[in-house]
Design goal:
This protein is α/β, with parallel strands linked by helices. It has four domains: 57-254, inorganic pyrophosphatase (n-terminal core), CATH 3.90.1640; 257-322, no CATH class; 342-451, Diaminopimelate Epimerase, Chain A, domain 1, CATH 3.10.310; 458-576, Beta Barrel (OB fold (Dihydrolipoamide Acetyltransferase, E2P)). It has a five-stranded parallel β-sheet with strand order 3-2-4-5-6, with helices on both faces. It has a five-stranded mixed β-sheet with strand order 7-8-9-11-10, sandwiched between helices. The longest helix is centred in the middle third of the chain and has 34 residues, at 308-341. Residues 569-577 have low confidence and may be disordered.
């Protein structure tokens, strides 16, 4: 797929000054300046995350009220129910909270509730509150949900149940009538870092609880591996406190992980040391699969298992769910692609709306994302849910999906979401009308540039600059994630050497020369670029650096992200096709 290359603007004076201060190659300092790191102290904080960099949890609005209410529940031997979402962030939050509460309260008074994705939907549910009432719980702590559950918190309150809400989603103007709300995004919250995930907010609560009880730091730091998994899976910015939490959590994962994490790592064959990327692609899908295909309770039970053998039993169930999920979303994606390919009008639209009554509700969001990989445009995938059609929407970067769906609200029974993703419910008879209206709205409002993927480039590099020292420093920029992705480099006027190969009619093994340096590269799923490689013309490459190990020998290679004929020299701020 054609991409827009966007070269970051960096001030040469700042680049040279940082290179001098840190005694590093200007290529590295250019990457760092492009990420807002401009002096020695900022670089030290970035490269050496420490516990001391974590923010005081008591700065979070509502923290004192939340801690007092939990301590009162412990003193009066009240029953506490932890209520969480069914995804990685939710289940890891529940596991963290339950384990800590069992340390400071009688475990017989602690339980958890995960709503069933298909029967109850996202967030706090009436069924969950009824469960709390029937089992005489006096306090519910919601994690990774609850900030918009005004009526349901009222309903719990009318039954004598108090609520503490730990959430990170954007709140509405009116907040639920909870005893305490912990959410850095709520109005008037002085907590400086606003991008914590749900598990991050829950971690701040258990930190404050342990401090109030004068418990040692290790009492809560032991759960940093769960926090790292949640940060990685929830695709929150890998900046500030998230980066510190993830760095420390990743260290624990590679040294002494939670039994459930260890079991999933072993089942999935995850190589160690693990990286955030490997967690996103191996651990997260298996945890998410529990809620997608069945019941997410087993994910929590795996995380809180007291020994490895018990955790392994649940991990095997999650692994089986993930196998089912992969088969299901693969077959639905294949069917969906065939529907688009067979319809000329649909192929030429600026949006995609597809509906089949037999598609599995748990994977329609994944299928929407896969369709965007092929047809880069706002996409909605719908299936039957009782007497209604319901589904998930995914956007392309830059386009406000929620606003587009809001403009089509006359066709919908209900909808919700945010800039990049949303869900909706409608009667099946309205699907065609909704599809027409959605296409009309997208066509009128989307910037044409947003229909072409953007590749953000950190710096232009010469082959002669690339060596293991550069690679090792780049690797120290881990953990990678949003706003701190692995650096993308561009090299210009590169020639193919004549030794490149097409692999399995899908991938390219490239041998490339710039001046007197030759590098090998791998380009996955880029067979359509093969004629370009064979053209003999100068090429521009966008890539990341990686190490290829073969027969005990390690060599630096390029992981190619895009290839194009060399236009005029790339310039700052240019979005070149």
């Amino acid at each position: 797929m054609q991409k827009r290359w966007k070269i970051k603007i960096t001030d040469d004076h700042k680049v040279n000054a940082l290179a001098e201060a840190l005694k590093i190659h200007p290529l590295i300092s250019r990457i760092l300046v492009g990420r807002g790191i401009e002096n020695f102290e900022e670089a030290k904080t970035f490269f050496r995350p420490e516990i001391s960099q974590l923010t005081d949890p008591w700065l979070m609005k509502g923290m004192d009220l939340a801690v007092k209410r939990i301590l009162r529940a412990i003193e009066e031997k009240e029953k506490i129910l932890v209520f969480g979402d069914y995804d990685v962030d939710g289940t890891s939050s529940v596991a963290l909270m339950v384990q800590l509460l069992c340390k400071i309260h009688d475990p017989v008074h602690i339980d958890f509730y995960i709503p069933h994705r298909h029967r109850e939907g996202y967030g706090v549910s009436k069924a969950g509150i009824d469960f709390a009432k029937e089992n005489t719980f006096q306090l519910i702590i919601s994690v990774d949900c609850g900030i918009k559950s005004i009526e349901l918190v009222e309903y719990a309150k009318s039954g004598g149940i108090d609520f503490i809400i730990c959430d990170h989603h954007l709140p509405d103007t009116i907040l639920p009538p909870a005893i305490a709300i912990l959410n850095p995004k709520q109005p008037g919250c002085p907590y400086p870092y606003k991008e914590l995930c749900g598990c991050g907010v829950a971690f701040k609560l258990i930190t404050a609880l342990c401090q109030a009880l004068a418990l040692p730091e290790e009492t809560y730091m032991v759960y940093l591996d769960l926090v790292a998994i949640a940060i990685a899976a929830d695709i929150v910015p890998m900046t500030g406190e998230n980066r510190v939490l993830c760095f420390l959590g990743l260290k624990k994962i590679n040294e002494n992980p939670n039994h459930g994490i260890r079991a999933l790592m072993n089942i999935s064959g995850l190589a160690t040391p693990a990286s955030i990327t490997s967690l996103v692609f191996t651990i997260a899908p298996r945890v998410n699969a529990a809620g997608r295909m069945d019941d997410a309770r087993k994910a929590v039970l795996m995380f809180i298992a007291e020994n490895y053998e018990e955790a392994l039993l649940y991990a095997n169930l999650l692994h089986a769910d993930n196998t089912d999920r992969r088969e299901t979303d693969s077959s639905i994606t294949e069917e969906a692609l065939a529907l688009i390919a067979g319809d000329e009008i649909m192929r030429n639209r600026k949006s995609t709306v597809l509906y089949q009554s037999h598609w599995h509700k748990g994977v329609v969001g994944i299928v929407a994302s896969r369709l965007i990989e092929k047809y880069y445009r706002p996409t909605i995938v719908l299936t039957q849910s009782g007497e209604f059609a319901s589904g998930m929407a995914r956007s392309v970067p830059g386009f406000n999906l929620y606003e587009a769906i809001h403009a089509c609200r006359e066709w919908l029974v209900g909808y919700g979401g945010h800039f990049a993703a949303a869900g909706m419910t409608l009667v099946p008879e309205n699907i065609e009308g909704f599809s027409r209206k959605f296409e009309e709205v997208v066509s009128e409002t989307i910037d044409p540039r947003f229909l072409i993927p953007e590749l953000e480039v950190d710096a232009v590099a010469k082959f002669r600059d690339l060596d293991f020292q550069i690679y090792r420093i780049i690797e120290q920029m881990e953990p990678f994630g949003p706003e701190n992705y692995k650096p993308v480099l561009v090299s210009e006027q590169v020639m193919e050497t004549g030794y490149s190969k097409l692999l399995k009619e899908k991938h390219l093994r490239l041998f490339l020369r710039q001046d007197d340096r030759i590098f090998s590269g791998i380009a996955f799923n880029m067979a359509e670029k093969w004629p370009l490689i064979q053209s003999g013309q100068p090429l521009d490459l966008a890539y990341t650096l990686e190490v290829n190990e073969w027969n005990g020998e390690k060599k630096l290679q390029l992981k190619i992200l895009d290839i194009r004929l060399n236009p005029e020299r790339l310039t700052s701020e240019a979005d070149l096709l």
